[in-house]
């Protein structure tokens, strides 16, 4: 039906944006679901496959290897084949991986299936925000990026529920034989939904124009913006590509180097402050305090709930108090919590609720700060012309740091002990505080172009942060 009236266009545009956000949300949900599902399964798998500590780490972190590969490939593949087709491939990988992780009889079969799923996550973690940014009207863009984090934590929360429900459906022997298979298998459901929904969303108009297909892009832009604005958009997008000659080398020029340090630095810090030691191994940590299997899964649900709740608080605060204030308060509070948790383990004071309470405050502090803020800053800190490549580099680094933490946590725990392990993460949280204080600029309320001009003024102004950064 032909749209002639403005209010009808507005309705179509809202429906359209909602559909796009739902697709992105499912991508984030799968990210959360597939990364955290292993937390409930690992205890059973350890016994089923008779795993040593290194293998336990590998069971968790093999997925992350896939994520690094997926993030690395996402930019190149989606430039060549389009955002939509690559996202469809990612959805298929999710489904194969969920079924593949549920049925293997050998540990290596399981590892291969998880790496395949990781490639899917690596792709969606980079492409979903990118696709959103390319397709959404400017006024919804920022919120959509942070909403992605809400979808991730919803996925994690959901996983914890599913895990508890499945493990509660039988005894320990059944758990070792079968429960973990169902836990992974359930992931196929959101995978199929994601795949189905992707067929209803259009290709990114930005990508179509880049391919020299403005005629295909125009009807999509019409649906988003209405007639007048759509034509202007085509011209603007074409122009932006004319300027878009950014090469990776530019990232190392004096001004942009700071953007790179901020983006990559925060990506690494988000991980080495230990959040995924808690997200992936929470039930194991609670078991170490003396809780039984089911009690530890219930406590894990609390972790998921707090993570979810405080991410909503962050969405509300991020454009009010700003990114920097959230990072400062969050990292300081994380450092204190990790110190206390370490002391509790060191002094053997783990029988009461102390560890649980401080893990919850730690997770809440992450959820209002490093969780959403790092993904938001990563998507806004780099100039238009190199945003795609630079964001992919930062995402890859984030996954690599995640790999190091999730692989090293079990052996670290058994060799250095929980106290030292948590203190190590605590010292990284302290580093995050100083890093943010000295180096991270406030980007709240600034247009992307204003943020961009920040780097060029740094290039000119030698008395600014540049010398401090060079000294790092
Ligand atoms: C991180 C994930 C983490 C999640 C926890 C995300 O921002 O990138 O690694 O598992 O937050 O909420």
Account of the protein in words:
The structure is a single chain. The chain is mainly alpha-helical and 472 residues long. The chain has one domain: Up-down Bundle (Growth Hormone, Chain: A), CATH 1.20.1250.20. It contains 21 helices and no strands. It has helices at residues 6-36, 38-48, 53-81, 83-102, 107-135, 138-167, 172-185, 188-198, 205-210, 214-225, 227-243, 254-272, 275-288, 293-317, 323-346, 354-368, 370-380, 387-415, 418-439, 448-460, 465-470. The longest helix is centred in the first third of the chain and has 31 residues, at 6-36. The termini are far apart. Residues 462-472 have low confidence and may be disordered. The structure holds beta-D-glucopyranose.
Helices and strands, with pairings:
Elements: H1 6-36, H2 38-48, H3 53-81, H4 83-102, H5 107-135, H6 138-167, H7 172-185, H8 188-198, H9 205-210, H10 214-225, H11 227-243, H12 254-272, H13 275-288, H14 293-317, H15 323-346, H16 354-368, H17 370-380, H18 387-415, H19 418-439, H20 448-460, H21 465-470
The structure holds beta-D-glucopyranose (BGC).
End-to-end C-alpha gap: 60 Å
Number of strands: 0
Number of domains: 1
Q: Largest sheet at a glance?
A: none
CATH superfamily name?
Answer: MFS general substrate transporter like domains
Helix and strand element order: HHHHHHHHHHHHHHHHHHHHH
Oligomeric composition of the shown chains = single chain
What structural class should be given to the helix and strand makeup? mainly alpha
Give the overall average pLDDT.
Answer: 85
Strand content: under 5%
The CATH topology corresponds to Growth Hormone, Chain: A
Rg estimate, integer Å: 22 Å
The helix tally amounts to 21
CATH class: Mainly Alpha
Domain Major facilitator superfamily (MFS) profile: 20-444
Family: Belongs to the major facilitator superfamily. Sugar transporter (TC 2.A.1.1) family.
GO cellular component, one term: plasma membrane
Organism: Paenibacillus prosopidis
